[in-house]
């Protein structure tokens, strides 16, 4: 992996292959390895780039005591500038999808295309009045859980609460994928876990009706219904959007159904349609 020095930390990233840049941003409490099935598939045709977001993977902890999706998007911009990448294709998973949305809001026509897996626009995935969200914040309870049980147990509790409302194996239908995700969570410190959660909870997505970037949103059939609704809304806002649901898959749709996800992404990038 390579390093990019920031004013308040060091960002770790990895590149494979040559060609048009294809940049992958992972989900919360994961790392760049979450995109391995896609890097293996596309590195022969594209310059595949993965980054470990602040608080995650090799990047680990950085100086700010508060994170935001906007800060993560700043880091993405810094990486694109450092590598002198133009017209990148951006692929975001979960939290990474928020980062890509923030980038597209800032630069409506700078990315060549966007592929968003497990795309979510807010957490929780519902409209809350701005004045109410701080009052309903789960951060105090999260801090207590982290101090008493640690990141992995706290994350499992979060999964159980989501699955209780969906009645499905929400995160992943594949036990190996779930356990790999849990191992990545266990590598994150209590303080960094809380900072990442805060970034997710505080983010307020902008209207993307000015975005011209062709965008594919992919959800697993066992994704939370409210998240699927957000994906449909996103697709309806951008100038060119497509929403695809893959069977036998959950939130980590790119890992549950890697071949189907890759085929749909390749078709979309080549023809503008995942059909």
TrEMBL record:
Molecular-function GO terms, alphabetical: hydrolase activity
InterPro entries in the record: AB_hydrolase_1, AB_hydrolase_fold, AB_hydrolase_sf
GO CC entries: membrane
Domain AB hydrolase-1: residue ranges: 21-254
Keywords linked to the UniProt accession: Hydrolase
Keyword Hydrolase: yes
Protein name listed in UniProt: Alpha/beta hydrolase fold protein
